[in-house]
Design brief:
mainly alpha; elongated; 3 helices
């Protein structure tokens, strides 16, 4: 009777180890798929950015006007950002805004 219980416990332990191994294998494959998808998404996004900078007349117009005003935009002004699971296609954000005209007018007054 004791031998039968030992065999059942051994089989159960082996089965649990196999299940854990299968779960680990599936998790590793899903992580790899996720990493590959993120890399593909980043590549696609960067291609969209380059196409926009080279072909989009509105973007070119805005850049030209900024340059004519003496304001050189940073090279990474338009860039890809991983937004996690948020469903976004494009966006704008202000990191820092400085009002130079107020500082200059107070000196001249």
């Amino acid at each position: 009777m004791q031998s039968s219980n030992t065999t059942k416990a051994s089989a159960s332990s082996s089965s649990s180890e196999e299940e854990a191994s299968i779960i680990d294998s599936i998790t590793a494959r899903e992580s790899q798929k996720t990493a590959e998808q993120k890399a593909q998404d980043k590549s696609t996004c960067e291609q969209y950015v380059q196409n926009g900078l080279k072909r989009d007349v509105t973007v070119q117009f805005l850049y030209e006007r900024l340059l004519k005003l003496g304001c050189r935009p940073p090279d990474d002004l338009i860039r890809c950002v991983d937004c996690g699971t948020k469903p976004v296609a494009a966006g704008f954000g202000v990191v820092e805004e400085i009002d130079v005209s107020t500082a200059d007018s107070s000196r001249n007054a």
